[in-house]
């Protein structure tokens, strides 16, 4: 049941990996959470993958997390009379709401919200930022621009507006349908795209209704301006570096990545680093040295998880990509410098009993040779807070709820175990001892630490820290 590492790996499922055999092979290669990308694939296909993963979960006896990633709004230009045209730097070019096919002078931009947000001097980016334009003048239905960086523009290419807040809901009609379907399957995490402010999470929170945990994908500069609020409004954060790299100078993305990780650590929220981590492995059986270093940097910075996208969804070497990422994580976590960096980055505890307990847990694990730390939890809250402290010993998240166990699959250092509800301390201690010995987390005589909330069964009441030695059954009650 045990992974020999703390950072988790998410893999995107697609045509290259959606068979039951490939899903099982990816799990064996180190994947902890599987991402269903609702920008692609049919509901029937996602349902088939979900069923295969739940069957795999039963076979291996270990909770598997499933993430539903919603597409979000897609801003695109209209069509051209000749399907495409070439824009030259310095030339004027217009955008408007008219559905008349475009030419070398103008094209439809069927998004009145964009025109409402533009001001003279604003930038418009087309085709992942390959074409850049500066707004000269604009009104509620049109904009005149100057081409700053030219290139070929063709039908339905994507548009980015990096300088403005766009009054657009992060959930389209398609997203609402996809979300309802994903929740009917019983997915564990929902990732929302196009999040710009904390308020954007409210609609998703209301629709999810507690049936899954909510992750905000940070893709836009406006989201970074409202980072702390978005972190507080979310259950986890994804650093979506691809879109961030389009809408802001690429040299800023590594700095922003570190800032996001730090904010999530302080809040005790899981953070996922995503996009182009092992991009070359879409067509290569080995990563570049730079890619290995990129993954390692995220692990050194204490990200909870790193994510594979096209590498496992559509690449030629999905198993090799998962294996390579697993190897990099393991190598980093063996480095003495890694522990020093983790210890140096531990945030100050909050003014709560739960934080006091979890902070003490980290201190105990650094003073005593603690083999494992146990968090008995209904909602997962105490496991999240324990992971925030990055204890040296593995965190065993024991919960009677399979949904909570699956949710914990994404959290740094947490090994989720479905366990019966505890009714008294002696039963809880015995249960922790049995899990430790059976799961290979310790040997007879080792010390384990246990946190829980008393009275049992009440969410958010972590108030107990107990140390005990691993003993034989007949001597276990302490």
Q: Work out the helix count.
A: 17
Strand content: 15-25%
In angstroms, what is the radius of gyration? 24 Å
Please give the order of strands in the largest beta sheet: 1-2-3-12-13-14-15-16
Number of strands: 21
Per CATH, the architecture of the largest domain is Alpha-Beta Barrel
Low-confidence stretches: none
Quickly count the domains: 3
Largest sheet: 8 strands, parallel, barrel
Question: What is the CATH third-level topology name of the largest domain?
Answer: TIM Barrel
Task: Determine and state the CATH class of the largest domain.
Answer: Alpha Beta
Average per-residue pLDDT, rounded, comes to 93
- Assign an overall shape: elongated
SS-based structural class?
alpha/beta
Separation of termini? 27 Å
Helix coverage percent: 25-40%
Task: State the CATH superfamily name of the largest domain.
Answer: Phosphoenolpyruvate-binding domains
Write a compact overview of the structure shown.
The chain is an alpha/beta fold. It is about 35% helix and about 25% strand.
Structural descriptors:
478 residues; 8-stranded parallel barrel; 23% strand; 3 domains; alpha/beta; M1 Pyruvate Kinase, Domain 3; 21 strands; elongated; Pyruvate Kinase, Chain: A, domain 1; TIM Barrel; 6-stranded mixed β-sheet
Structure description:
By secondary structure, this protein is α/β, with parallel strands linked by helices. It has three domains: 8-73 and 170-335, Alpha-Beta Barrel (TIM Barrel); 84-160, Beta Barrel (M1 Pyruvate Kinase, Domain 3), CATH 2.40.33.10; 353-475, Pyruvate kinase, C-terminal domain (Pyruvate Kinase, Chain: A, domain 1). The protein is 37% helix and 23% strand. Strands 1-2-3-12-13-14-15-16 form an eight-stranded parallel beta barrel, surrounded by six helices. A six-stranded mixed beta sheet has the order 6-5-9-8-7-11, with no helix packed on it. Strands 19-18-17-20-21 form a five-stranded mixed beta sheet, sandwiched between helices. Helix 15 (381-388) links the parallel strand 17 and strand 18. Helix 14 packs across helix 15 (381-388). The longest helix has 18 residues, at 43-60. The radius of gyration is 24 Å and the shape is elongated. The mean pLDDT is 93.
């Amino acid at each position: 049941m045990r992974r020999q590492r703390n950072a988790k790996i998410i893999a995107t499922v697609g045509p290259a990996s959606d068979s039951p055999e490939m899903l099982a092979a990816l799990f064996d290669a180190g994947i902890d959470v599987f991402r269903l990308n609702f920008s692609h694939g049919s509901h029937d296909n996602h349902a088939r993958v979900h069923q295969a993963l739940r069957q795999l979960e039963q076979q291996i006896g270990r909770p598997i997390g499933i993430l539903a990633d919603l597409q979000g709004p897609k801003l695109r230009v209209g069509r051209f009379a000749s399907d495409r045209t070439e824009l030259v730097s310095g030339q004027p070019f217009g955008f408007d709401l008219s559905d008349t096919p475009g030419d070398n002078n103008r094209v439809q931009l069927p998004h009145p919200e964009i025109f409402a947000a533009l001001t003279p001097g604003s930038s418009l980016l087309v085709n992942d930022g390959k074409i850049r334009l500066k707004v000269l003048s604009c009104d509620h239905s049109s904009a005149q621009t100057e081409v700053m960086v030219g290139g070929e523009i063709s039908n339905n290419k994507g548009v980015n507006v990096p300088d403005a807040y766009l009054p657009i809901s992060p959930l389209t009609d398609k997203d609402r349908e996809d979300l309802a379907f994903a929740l009917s399957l019983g997915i564990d995490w929902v990732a929302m795209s196009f999040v710009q402010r904390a308020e954007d999470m409210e609609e998703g929170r209301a629709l999810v209704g507690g049936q899954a945990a909510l992750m905000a994908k940070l893709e836009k500069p406006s989201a970074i301006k409202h980072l702390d609020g978005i972190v507080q409004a979310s259950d986890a954060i994804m650093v979506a570096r691809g879109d961030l790299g389009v809408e802001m100078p690429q040299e800023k993305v590594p700095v922003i990545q570190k800032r996001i990780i730090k904010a999530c650590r302080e809040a005790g929220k899981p953070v996922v680093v995503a996009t182009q981590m092992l991009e070359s492995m879409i067509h290569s059986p080995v990563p570049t040295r730079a890619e290995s270093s990129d993954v390692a940097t995220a692990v050194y910075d204490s990200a909870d998880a790193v994510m594979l996208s096209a590498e496992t969804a559509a690449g030629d070497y999905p198993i090799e990509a998962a294996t390579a990422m697993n190897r990099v994580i393991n190598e980093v976590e063996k480095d003495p410098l890694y522990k020093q960096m983790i210890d140096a980055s531990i945030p100050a505890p909050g003014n709560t009993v739960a934080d006091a307990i979890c902070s003490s847990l980290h201190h105990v694990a650094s003073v005593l040779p603690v083999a494992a730390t146990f968090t008995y939890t209904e909602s997962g809250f105490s496991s999240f807070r324990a992971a925030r402290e990055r204890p040296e010993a593995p965190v065993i998240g024991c919960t009677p709820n399979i949904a909570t166990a699956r949710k914990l699959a994404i959290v740094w250092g947490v090994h989720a175990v479905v366990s019966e509800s505890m009714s008294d301390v002696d039963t809880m201690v015995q249960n922790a001892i049995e899990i430790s010995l059976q799961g290979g987390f310790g040997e007879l005589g080792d010390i384990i630490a246990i946190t829980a909330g008393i009275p049992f069964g009440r969410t958010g009441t972590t108030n107990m820290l107990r140390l005990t030695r691993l003993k034989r059954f007949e001597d276990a009650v302490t």
